[in-house]
Each structure stands twice: as structure tokens, then as C-alpha cells.
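Notes continue from the previous slide.

Worked example: a multi-chain complex. Inputs as given:
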Amino acid sequence: MSAPDYGCAFSLWRDQTPAWRAYTHHPFVEGLRTGSLPRANFLHYLRQDYIFLIHFARAWALAAAKGETLAEIQAASATVQALAHVEMPLHVQICAREGIDAAALEATEEAPANVAYTRYVLESGYSGGFLDLMAALAPCVLGYGEIGLRLKGSGGPYADWINTYAGHDYQGLCRDVGTLIDGALLHRLGPDWASLPRAGHLSQRFATATRLEVGFWQMGLDLR
Amino acid sequence: MSAPDYGCAFSLWRDQTPAWRAYTHHPFVEGLRTGSLPRANFLHYLRQDYIFLIHFARAWALAAAKGETLAEIQAASATVQALAHVEMPLHVQICAREGIDAAALEATEEAPANVAYTRYVLESGYSGGFLDLMAALAPCVLGYGEIGLRLKGSGGPYADWINTYAGHDYQGLCRDVGTLIDGALLHRLGPDWASLPRAGHLSQRFATATRLEVGFWQMGLDLR
Amino acid sequence: MSAPDYGCAFSLWRDQTPAWRAYTHHPFVEGLRTGSLPRANFLHYLRQDYIFLIHFARAWALAAAKGETLAEIQAASATVQALAHVEMPLHVQICAREGIDAAALEATEEAPANVAYTRYVLESGYSGGFLDLMAALAPCVLGYGEIGLRLKGSGGPYADWINTYAGHDYQGLCRDVGTLIDGALLHRLGPDWASLPRAGHLSQRFATATRLEVGFWQMGLDLR
Amino acid sequence: MSAPDYGCAFSLWRDQTPAWRAYTHHPFVEGLRTGSLPRANFLHYLRQDYIFLIHFARAWALAAAKGETLAEIQAASATVQALAHVEMPLHVQICAREGIDAAALEATEEAPANVAYTRYVLESGYSGGFLDLMAALAPCVLGYGEIGLRLKGSGGPYADWINTYAGHDYQGLCRDVGTLIDGALLHRLGPDWASLPRAGHLSQRFATATRLEVGFWQMGLDLR
């Protein structure tokens, strides 16, 4: 499958990332597609994903703090707002429907694979700057978009999950984030950014984050 | 004037801050109250305030990044959102009405007093934690609320400005921020937080930030 | 084995950490003690440890940046200096003796378990403050001290490694770090800090970091 | 006077900074040169400089935390170490000789101009990355070097101060820092970095920091 059109940087970074296919075609993802993923694994994933979302919202807030233009601050702020006031309450509802109440969610012990990815993202942002944060966030935001598109129409027990990421709203978000990233690169590094050493460092961040996403799916499969 | 009811921490910190009166009764403020403040000074203040608001939004975004509970993240996120998507566009409009267009705003050179306060706030947040950030932000958020209340009904050329901060929405925000701060202290330091060394450090942050706010008004008066 | 005397906070946090024994008695550690650890596993560990040391030095540098007293800044600075100018060149030498040259070291791909622990430490420091950083660093610094003491005199192929951590210098460092932590707690939270909610959060950090250290040994064992 | 040879970036940034002459030829500096600066102003400066040095050491520690190569971490670490273990104790001694004891130093209230510069530097580092930090630190480190060279041999009551910055050691440090900056730019942005938008942002940081240095001298003159 060719890359969805989420901008130039995504297209480049994706091509330079050996683990991209292992991430987007992980057995966990295939289990979502075919419906063969056991419920227990999905619920384990959902609980970890709640913790993930908290740190993900924090990472987007850090992006707003590190934005260098009003447009960057506004875009990042809108994402935090959507995560904290829409996605997370929705996630709590979905979990409740599956029999995981708020107290159980809060009591979830964070899995090492979850720590690895979320703290890598946050630390990229704290130690580096806005671009480092974007490169570390991109595999998650845009990878889920690509997975959603590929799994679209699969039906089965995980159709709701698939439709969320295949849907119009999420795909629009992916295109917006792609635009934000390309604009941020242009603003800082100019039109020939891909030829600079910095481009290699950012691609590395994207690749490392992708490897950690593979670990996140694997955690779901291993129930650890 | 007694402290408005913006919570326990505000009340305590305010009482321990020698410069509080110099800040809230600064000649610039008195000029807003009586209407004697020259227009040029107000416009200079407005231009600097635009830059201030950018860094202020960034500081609240940092607070969201450093929040330890979903409620803290949500509260900080809502403030960033209001600043970036409501306050700042409104500020741009007000400036336009006064003949300062967007290009002029963007071209404003940041005054040293502006740098001093905004970077003190941000650095408090980066080097310390959520509480340090709150203590450094509080003189601005809550001080403007107190000034608004005191100047309420003054009329004159600055009535719009006064009514913004005296108004129902802003006073509600002040009470919410007061509640956020008291809750954050309780969550981290327990009910007897005021007796801990940390309380003295936070009060110091509030006092230093207040001194820098005095400098911000003075900048408006000196047109530098 | 009772806790070595590395101060009050260590003693408390250690007792509250279920994974402490799994960390300090991990099969990798037992393999070092009995000499049964295959060389390949040790070399894998050494290569990852080089990357670890870089981030560890960065974490101590962050501690210096976040120190609130001259003594804290000096203590953290001396540790960075020792890591960057003594430990790391020494590590490069040891690796060279084992046939891993500098280029091979630099080319090592960071293992997920390495990312998890190092980024957790750094992010604790960036998002929290000095105390959070100390709580996240402590399992490594002081745990290696405890392991060194327990393995002291074991002999065998890993005697050099054991003697480094059992030795006078490293044990002195552990006591100094314990004193630094206890002093930092007293300076911020007063003598009854253990009764505050913050104490629970810090103990949690120590416990999470310990779980990630278990993962680090396991990485050495699994050669992944 | 032409720029001393502290590397390419310094030479470029210096040329693009209108306030450079106002900084390096400030009346305070001229008072040091001719000996006409009143003692009280020098002592006021010395007391503020003590607080400055603490934050300066913290900023270099942050640079070590943000270094991307072992060489960057080592260079920054050596600077922190020199500041915390040599410069600061020396500064305390000098102050003591002038009748300002350690307690008086600690009790000094930080002047707003001091807050402005130090927090600008630290926040540049936290919000941006290593390069932003270097651009904000450079006017201080390298400007003092240039001033020292220009004032060399002036004699008078401030000869000790002048000789410190004109001396072999400090001039060597300036060349090393210049090399560190040029290397960091090359490592991240490649040989044509000066043509990138990022170059403009960094030059802006250098210029803003220079304006804040002017304010620091002015504080010494105004005794505020």
C-alpha cells in the first residue's frame, strides 16, 4: 500500500523506516482486521491506551508550549483540547461499556512498552524542540490513520475501532497534522530541509518511535 | 481592600507579598481608573500585551503538559484553548480598532520588562513543576481579577478594558484558577502544606512574579 | 539482605517497592555472581550500557540545571563530570578490550528496554522537579551499589565489574547520593516529608524505575 | 574594533546585532576601563553577578542535558564544573574581600534586569534546543571576552576584573565556546546553515540576549 497523503515529511520518513511495515501490519492489527484478536487482548490494549492518551495529551500540550507561531500554538492547543475533553471521556465510556470502570482504569499499572513510547515522545520534545516532538508523535497519529484506511470496511467485532480511525474526522486530523509538520519544517529549515543533517536526526526519531509502536502492539498480544 | 475570594493559596501569598499594593495600585492602573492614562501609553501596553499573551498561552500549555491528574490537564488545556482561540483573536481585533494592524503587532519588539515576566513564568514551570508554574502565573491571572473588581464601574475611556476583568466570565475564571491551585497543593502536599518549606519557596515565586508585574506596568508608563 | 545505609529515603522507597528483589536478584545478576552468564550477554549489556551512560549523564546534568541550592548544583555537576570525563572514556576502553571498538559502540541500536528506563528518568526530571529526578535515578545508582556489596568477593569472569560497584569509590558515591536525596527532601518538604502525598508519588517513581531496571537486565538475558 | 576570533557564528551574529556596541561600550564598561565607576556600583554589580552565576551554571548544565554528542556533553559539563567549583567559590571570596559575606550574598534580592537575562537564557534552552541555548549564552561568554580584550592593560581599580576576562584562560574558553557553537551548527544544519530560516531565529536570540545584557550593565549603573 502506498502512503496516504499526509504530507511530504511523513512520506519521506515512512520510506526511511524499516519497521514501518512491522508496525502497520503487526499481528495485533491483523487480528483487529480479521476479528481474530481475542477480546482479552483488546481490553488489555484499551486499558493501556487510556494511560497512553494522558501522556499523548501532555505531549501535544508541550508542543503548544514550544510552538513558535500563533498557528502552531493554535493547532497544538486544539489537539490537546480534543484529546482531553473529547477523546478521553469517550475512551472512559468505551471502557465502561466493556466492563472496565473508571477506578479500574485509574488502577492500571503502566506496561513497560507504554512507558517506553510515551516517555520517548515527551523526552524528545523536552530535550529537542517542536520538530523533534512532531517526528516522535507522527508514527502514532499518522500510522493509526494509515491502518484505519487499510482496515476500512473490514467489519467484525472491531469495526467501531476501525471506523474511528478510517473515518472522515480522523483522516482530516491526519492531513492537518501532516500540514502542520511540513509547515514547521519549512518555517525553521527552509524548502531544502530534507538535505540537512537535521533531517536525518528527525527521520531517526520517527524510526525509533515506530519501533516503540511495534512494542506497543506486541504488549497487547502478550498481555504484559 | 480585602482579597477577593480566589482561594486559600492566593490569600496567603498575597498577604506575604510586599509589592502587591504597588502592583494593584500602580499609577498605570490608577490612570486606567481615572481615565488620565494617555492613549499612547495604553497602545504601547496593548502591543506588548499581545506578545505577553503568546507566552502566557505557552505557559498554560506547559501547565497542561505537567498536570498530574486528568482534571489538571483539562483545566489547563481549556485555558490554553480560550487564550489561543478567543483572547488572542479578540486582542488582534481590539488592536486593529486602535489602528495597530496585525503586521505592526507582529513587528513589535519585546520590551525587557515583558521578557522578564514571561520568561520567569515559563522557566519556573520548566525548572520546577506544576506548583511553581501556578505560583508564577497567579499574580497575573488573579491580580487582574482583583484590579478589575476594584476599578469596576469607573467608566471613562478604559471602561471596556475594566469591564473585561471585572466581568462575570473573568471573575469565574479567577475562582476556577484559585480552586485549581488549592487542589494542586492539596494533591501534592496535603492539607498542612502552608507549614512546609515548599510553601515559602512558592510564596517567593509569587512575590518575584508580582515585582515583575510592577515592572510591566512601569514599562507602559515609560513607553520603553 | 538488609538495605545498605544509603539514607532514609532509599530505605523507605526500597521497602515499598515490590520489584526490588526481582531487580537486585535478577538471573542476569546471579549470572554475574556465579560467572555463568554467557559472554555474549555481557557484551550485549555493555553496548547498551554505553548508550545508557550518555542519557544518565544527561539526566544528572538536568539535575544540576534544576538544583535549588549551590550544594545541589555542585553535587550534580560533579557527577556529570565524573560520568562524562571518567566513566564514559573508561567504558569505551573496557569495550575496546572486549573487541567492541568506538565505531561499533556508536552504531549500537538502542534497545526498547533501554529507551524505556532512560527516557522515563529524563521525563520525570523534565516534567517534575529535582525530587522526581532523584527518585527515578535512585534505583540505578543505589541498586548497583547494593548489588555490588552483595556480590563482593564472588570472583570469576565478572570480578572486575563486581569490584567496581563493590569498591570504596562507588560505595562513597552511593552514600553521597543518599545524603543529597535526604537533604533535598528536607529542604523542600521538611522533616515529616514521608507523611505527605508527594512521598507516595516519589515512591511510585522509584517503583516504576525499578520495574524498568528489571527490564534492562532481562534485555541483557534475551539479547534483544 | 573588529570581532575577536571566536568563530563564524559569533562573527555573523555580532554583525547582525544593532545593540552590540551599546553592550560592549556601555558606560558601566567605560567606567571599568577608566576607573571612574563608583565602588558602590561595582559592588552592586558583584552581588547581582553572584545570582547570575548560579543561573548561568544551571544554563550550562541544561546544555549538557541537551547535548547530542559526547563531545557536546563533555564541553558543557566541563563549563558547569568550572563555574560551580571554581568561579563561584572565587566569586564568594572576592565579595568577602569587599566586605560582602556569604549571608549577604545569599540575601541579595534579584534585580529585574538579572531575572530578564537569566530566565531568557534558560527558557531559550528549555523551549528550543541546544542551538537556542548557545545563541542566548553567547553574548555573555563572548561579549565579556571581547570587552576584556579591549580593556586589557587599562590598569586602575578594576584591573583585576579586566585581567580575568583579558587573560589567557578566559580567552581560551571563548575560543572553545566559539568552536563548540560552530560545530553544533554544522552537526545539525550543515555547512550552509547561515542561509536557513533557523539562522535568522538564532541571530534574533543573540540580539535579544544582547539587549538584555545592556540592561544588566544599566542595572549596575542605576543601583536598582
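Summary box: Chain A has one domain: 8-222. DSSP finds eleven helices and no strands in chain A.
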